[in-house]
Amino acid sequence: MAMLGKRRPRRERSGVSGLQKRQPPLGAPVASGEPDVRDDDARDDEPRGVVIERLAHDGRGLAHDAAGKTLFVEGALPGERVDAAVHLTRKRFDEAHVRELLEGSPERVTPPCAHYGRCGGCDLQHLAVPAQRRHKLAVLIDLLARQGVDTPDEPQLLAGADHGYRRRARLGVKVGAEGQVHLGFRAHHSHRLVDIERCTILVPTLDVLLVPLHRQVASLDAPRQVGHLELLDSDQGAVLLVRQLKEHAGDRERWLAFAAQHRLHLAWLAGRESPSLEWLTPTPALSVRVPSASGASAAAGELTLGFAPGDFLQANAEVNRQMVATALTWLESLEGAVLLDLFAGVGNFSLPLASAGAKVTAVEGSPTMVERLTDNARANSREQPLTVEARQGNLNDAEVVKALLAEIAPDTLLLDPPRDGADAVCSALAASPVPRVLYVSCDPATLARDAARLVHSGYRLTRLAVADMFVHTSHLESMLLFEHPRTEQRRQGATPDG
Questions:
Q1: Residue 301: its pLDDT value, please?
Q2: Looking at the structure, do residues 173 and 135 belong to the same domain, yes or no?
Q3: CATH number of the domain where residue 196 is located
Q4: Are residues 267 and 299 in the same domain?
């Protein structure tokens, strides 16, 4: 990135900055009948820059230079003409950023965050929110189509507020050579920290802590011993976790005073090799809420999910509630259903599905998550009995998944895997199909790969939705419902002849 904004040397392939038409070197002979055009006296009527053709999946503008080479331009929108500066050259494409906007798009807006362009997050702030969401819908359809998966309808959109939605964040801490303290998020494609004083996407209870936290770290005796800070919002209030690399008694007391001043739950994760979590304030029973079957579309009827720092928790509470409600709507008639929930976490889907009458077996790779899920099922069964059995299992092993399918014989399967997807699960489903599969994904590329395997093994895609979990970014979550015609009669309780 050291050459950002600088003119690159002339190359025969694509000329200056990879954007202008090929020109002969200065002093070279000009063929008869051709105008003598040079960098210094280019024709005034020749259009400058490149025109952005569309957005790539990651939100960058896509164009082609005069030599036909693909160009990915950060911060550019479809239809715009930009003067782009190439900052990385590859064999098949170049990467660039906007040096000057020559013709703008009507969908370009002023980014709402003062840190846009420096902070590495929220890279689509220059695009109007409705256009961001249309782009995400198109990305999902395109990635599925590339794998030969047809979509039955336009995806359903699950979306909430475009600001103040993020309920968890991790802040980097760095102390410079002269003792200056930096606290914030990483710059784009860099390990450098950008000092953040205000974050428009954080929930207000966390956003107001950014400036006080910067002052707090700067006041410590040993700020270099702070690895990072984590902020969480819960029903019990804001939580601050301090990653302390080396114990420091004086700074421990300073953090306690800070927590008291700002009414925070304070956790201390100390040690380099095997850090241990310690609550410096009284240990809270942290929880968040999700809809139950009776409250999927109403204010009443909620379940509580207990969690601890380090547990996976969806960042956008409002959109997560919509995803749970959508699962309950799509998987209708769950009374008595045998349901297998894979990558179940603390029970985000398991408990709501059980509240609809399903007999749920929830499987997680982490023993800690299994214990937490068991506790959550027990706590939410006081008023309404929930049939949930939590198990630990390696879901990246197809044989383990096949054994689960054979033992439980589910008529419905829900999976919510990490970014790597669920290759082993889909392999097992191809051999032992389940009538209905609801796939919740945080990575559309691995989802498309796994969807293709399911479709090619006999499943058909019947419903899909895009969840705009992270507004102002190119990241998208999605939900796909698959049904297997040959096994559907088993779910309905019919015999092969009936």
A1: 78
A2: no
A3: 2.40.50.1070
A4: no
Q: Is 380 annotated as a binding residue?
A: no
Check: CB of residue 17 under 8 Å from CB of residue 84: yes
DSSP-assigned states of every residue in 109-122: ---S-TTTTTBSS-
- Identity (one letter) of the amino acid at 196? I
Among residues 379, 387, 362, 360, the alpha carbon closest in space to that of 303 is found at 379
What is the per-residue burial (b if ≥16 Cβ within 10 Å, else e) of 178-210? Answer: eeebbbbbebbeeeebbbbeebbbbbebbbebb
Residues 6+ apart with CB under 8 A from 299: none
136 and 273 inside one domain = no
Residue 1 has pLDDT above 60, yes or no: no
User: Do 290 and 212 reside in the same domain of the chain?
Assistant: no
Coil/strand/helix, residue 426: helix
Placement of tokens 């956790």 in the chain: 267
7: left (phi over 0), alpha (psi -120 to 50) or beta: beta
Cα dihedral sign, 441-347-314-182:
negative
322 and 388 assigned to the same domain: yes
Cα 83 to Cα 86: distance, rounded to the nearest angstrom: 10
- All residues at 6 or more sequence positions from 214 whose CB lies less than 8 Å from its CB, including other chains: 181, 183, 195, 197
CATH code, domain carrying 67: 2.40.50.140
| Final residue of a structural domain among 224, 251, 279 | 279
Mark whether 264 and 306 lie in a shared domain. no
pLDDT tens column, 112-168: 999 998 998 999 999 999 999 999 999 999 999 999 999 988 899 999 999 999 999
Catalytic residue, chosen from 442, 447, 451, 465, is 442
Residues 35-46 have pLDDT tens digits of: 444 444 445 566
According to the 3-state scheme, what is the secondary structure of 430-496?
Answer: HHCCCCEEEEEECCHHHHHHHHHHHHHCCCEEEEEEEECCCCCCCCCEEEEEEECHHHHHHHCCCCC
Q: Is 482 annotated as ligand-binding? A: no
In whole angstroms, what is the distance from residue 164 CA to residue 167 CA?
A: 8
The values of phi and psi at residue 98, to 5°, are -75, 120
Q: Tell me the C-alpha distance between 345 and 349, whole Å.
A: 9
* Tokens linked to 14: 């694509």
Give the domain range for residue 270: 168-234+237-279
How many domains in the chain? Answer: 3
Q: Cα–Cα distances in Å, from 490 out to 21, 29, 80, 371, 409?
A: 64, 79, 54, 32, 10
**Residue 442 catalytic?**
yes
Residues 290 and 336 in one domain: yes
Question: Has 247 been labeled as part of a binding site?
Answer: no
> Are 204 and 60 contained in the same domain?
no
On whether residue 31 sits in a domain, the answer given is no
- Tens digits of residue pLDDT in 337-374: 999 999 999 999 999 999 999 999 999 999 999 999 99
Tell whether residue 477 is among the known ligand binding residues. Answer: no
